[in-house]
Design a protein that fits this description.
The chain is an alpha/beta fold. The chain is built from eleven helices and 13 strands. Helix 2 crosses helix 8, helix 3 packs parallel to helix 5 and helix 5 runs parallel beside helix 6. The N terminus is likely disordered. Bound molecules: nicotinamide-adenine-dinucleotide.
């Protein structure tokens, strides 16, 4: 890890969606030693996410769908972390056309811009959602791809564009697919995932709603491990043209998640059940062997530690 991290020193780096949850943590890790540009249209992002790095970066309030802007910025950088997206199943069900414009139009703009540039690596943030309902567990990179929501379709299409541009133009793309990300700064709106909604409602002393019976399982990955995976994917020679499942390989049910939240917060957690939500799979667990063998990726934070860090951070 250290050797690879050292390679991202004094580099010119673009983080699209850098004012969002995951993007801002990547920016914080890279901004002390690199020249970082953030491109974000503040659709869900926020400048408070960039509080730590704001004096060290160039922030551009702009849209990934703006071809000329994307061309101009890409010409200035060597590495790209692409996180700008219309995020989540629920949003995409409400507006699948817009989802396609941002998630597919956005990557195409970047890839086309990269063809005329000197990009050393474009790391694309994809999602475990592209697999759909698991045929077997844990899910490796050879698992069938059956996205079950417009969001998952657009994330998969963008992966395939990265692959195609690597094949045809030898562009050094790499895709990292996260399963269920969590950590400080995560959205807590109705579009958010269980961890951030549960922690924020617990903080406010409000009861939780568990969709379905709570026995559905998820592979939760803490933000610091996602940042590590991105840096490995950007710097490791073996990552070019590849896709990697990135998570922990360990699962918890939603009922177990609620129990651990009760333990780390020391609070009573009242909850009720509601009907399952459309577009959500029953079980999910990543096989991370490929990332571990090729990149030396290894998750460092387990769910209990990650929840505790997140709880402490949101209570500061
Ligand atoms: N959070 C997860 O569990 C998870 C899991 C798998 C993959 N991902 C992927 O990781 C990336 C980051 O997700 P996140 O959880 O940080 O979400 P987020 O909503 O916090 O971040 C997305 C960022 O993109 C920006 N953005 C949206 N549309 C844009 C546009 N047209 N032009 C420029 N910027 C735009 C938003 O303002 C926001 O800052 C996304 O690509 C998402 O698909 C997230």
């Amino acid at each position: 890890m250290t050797q690879e991290q050292n390679q991202l020193k004094s580099k010119k780096i673009l983080v699209t969606g850098g004012a969002g949850f995951i993007g801002s943590h990547i920016v914080d890790r890279l901004s002390p030693e690199n020249k970082v540009i953030v491109l974000d249209n503040m659709f869900t992002g926020s400048l408070t996410n960039l509080e730590k790095s704001k004096d060290r970066i160039t922030f551009i309030n702009g849209d990934i769908r703006d071809k000329k802007l994307v061309n101009d910025i890409v010409a200035e950088v060597e590495y790209i972390f692409h996180l700008a997206a219309h995020v989540g199943n629920i949003r995409s069900l409400k507006d699948p056309h817009f989802d396609m414009e941002v998630n597919i139009g956005g990557i195409l703009n970047l890839l086309e811009a990269c063809r005329n540039s000197n990009i050393k690596r474009l790391v694309y943030s994809s999602s475990g959602a592209i697999f759909g309902e698991a045929r077997y567990l844990p899910i490796d990179e050879d698992h069938p791809l059956n996205p079950e929501s417009p969001y998952a379709v657009s994330k998969l299409a963008a992966e395939k564009y990265c692959f195609a541009f690597h094949k045809v133009y030898n562009l050094p793309t790499a895709t990292v697919r996260y399963f269920n990300a969590y950590g400080p700064r995560q959205d807590t709106s109705e579009y958010a995932n269980a961890v951030s909604i549960f922690l924020s409602r617990t903080r406010e002393g409000k009861p939780l709603t568990i969709f379905s019976d709570g026995e559905q399982t998820r592979d939760f990955i803490f933000i610091d491990d996602i940042v590590n995976a991105n840096i490995l994917a950007a710097t490791h020679p073996a990552a070019a043209g590849e896709v990697f499942n990135i998570s922990t390989g360990v699962v918890h049910s939603i009922n177990q998640l609620v129990k651990i939240i009760g333990e780390i917060t020391g609070r009573e957690i009242p909850f009720s059940h509601a009907a399952p939500r459309a577009g959500e799979v029953r079980h999910s667990r990543a096989n991370i062997e490929k990332a571990s063998k090729l990149l030396g990726y290894s998750p460092e934070t387990d769910l209990r530690q990650g929840l505790l860090k997140t709880w402490q951070e949101i209570n500061k």
